[in-house]
Amino acid sequence: MLNAEKLSKRYGSSTVVDGLDVSVEIGQIRGLLGPNGAGKTTTLNMICGVLAPTEGKVVVDGFDLETDALEVKQRIGYVPDGAPLPPELYPMEYFRAVGRMYGLPTSELMTSIEKWSERLDIEDVLEKPIETLSRGYRQRVAIAGALLHEPLLLVLDEPSTGLDPEQHLTFRSLLKGLTKYIAILYSSHNLAEVEATCDVVTILSRGKCVVDGTFDELSTAVSALQVEVTPHAVADSITHSDATIIDVDWIRLVVPIDEQESIAKNVAELGGSVRLINPVKPSLEESYVRLVTEAGT
Description:
The longest helix is centred in the middle third of the chain and has 14 residues, at 106-119. The protein folds into two domains: 2-215, Rossmann fold (3-Layer(aba) Sandwich); 224-280, Alpha-Beta Plaits, CATH 3.30.70.980. The strands form three sheets. It has a six-stranded mixed β-sheet, with helices on both faces. Strands 2-1-4-5 form a four-stranded antiparallel β-sheet. The chain contains ten helices and 14 strands. A hairpin with a 2-residue loop joins β9 (200-205) and β10. The chain is α/β, with parallel strands linked by helices and 297 residues long. The protein has helices at 40-47, 69-74, 91-101, 106-119, 135-147, 165-178, 191-197, 232-236, 260-269, 284-296; strands at 2-11, 14-24, 29-33, 55-60, 63-64, 76-79, 153-157, 183-188, 200-205, 208-213, 224-230, 242-245, 251-256, 273-280. The radius of gyration is 25 Å and the shape is elongated.
């Protein structure tokens, strides 16, 4: 559905996005993750045609943004950071304005409003001022407005900001349901939210991609070993970062991975025993911080 290749954006000598590839298919939610200033919003603006890339191309549903801009934009729905909406309007008034902008015939627009209002569960607020709606309802109205012209790609920039825990859960469920019809590109700096919502992730740091894949692939490297040994004197002789007494005789250690070959030797020389050696993988947060830090050095 979306294939953005070698996207770059430079302002003078400053490179904001550097040779980035991004793709997403219908039925999929791709997270665009990275710290503030990583280039996420600039990337979304280039994909949506708000900014022209310095280099690279954007293809949506087979149409090239450079040569078929109108076709591409008709296939994209965009909800920018903060989901800005005119507070004085009712959702129904806002939807009519959006429909006029896309040139939708009245009958087609009303059918689309009915369809997306039902799917996003906003039928009860269509005739209430937007400024009186909760953050969760405003987010739904913004998404409905972005879907009225039946795009194939929904682009969301920091969509969950300001939602309470219950609204977060409802919002995730809503997006999962939408993937039956569309592809979703979801930008955020919130690792936990992206992990809970997205199927695959692209992690940016200083405008460059440092990871592209599933969350499981982020923490495949074994960082340490968990070892259970006896007696305590043997445990004291092994280099470790953490120790937990399991019972009178056995101690569980967290041992650096480079100590793997020496463990059995040390235990045997001291007349001890080993009953468990398990690999320990870093947490997702540890992997993310390491990757972003390494990319910035």
